[in-house]
Amino acid sequence: MENIKQFFSAHDQFAKHSGIELLDVASGYAKVRMMIMDYHLNGVNIVHGGAIFTLADFAFAAASNSHGKVAVAINATISFMKATTAGILIAEAKEISLTSKFGNYIVNITDEENNLVAVYQGTAYRKKNELLK
């Protein structure tokens, strides 16, 4: 799994630009974090929904690609539960089903006190290509 972690840490430029750090990857699982900065805030001074979606989407990408096959999102939804303005957000992706062509994942986004901030659901199409070739 270390090679998957290194791959995403080195190659996902948008996550890097957004200040997202990949903490852990295992088969069908990933955990990432983002320290909230001023540039993550929207016009009403709460974390922008796009920043939360990006955090969740990166966790989803790492978890869905953890099997070594290229996996790309074909559907994703997010529900926001609680506004937040500062601190650290954690996104934890867990695989809920896997076939040769599709994987489904739930990503819980929490704050530092483990309050649920958002829930993301994603479906990945699993291509035949090997991720690390």
Largest sheet: 6 strands, antiparallel
Say what oligomer this is: single chain
The top level CATH class name: Alpha Beta
Proportion in helices: 10-25%
Q: Tally the helices: what do you get?
A: 3
Question: What is the topology, as strand order, of the major beta sheet?
Answer: 1-2-4-5-6-3
The CATH superfamily title: Hotdog Thioesterase
- Any low-confidence stretches, pLDDT <50, length ≥5? none
Question: What is the averaged pLDDT score?
Answer: 94
Provide an overview of this structure:
The chain is of the alpha+beta class and 133 residues long. It has one domain: Thiol Ester Dehydrase, Chain A (Roll). It contains three helices and six strands; from the N terminus they run H-H-E-E-H-E-E-E-E. Strands 1-2-4-5-6-3 form a six-stranded antiparallel beta sheet. The chain is globular and about 45 Å long. It starts with a helix and ends with a strand.
SSE layout:
Layout: H1 2-11, H2 13-17, E1 20-26, E2 29-35, H3 49-64, E3 69-80, E4 88-98, E5 102-110, E6 116-130
Q: Short description, anyone?
A:
The chain is built from three helices and six strands; from the N terminus they run ααββαββββ.
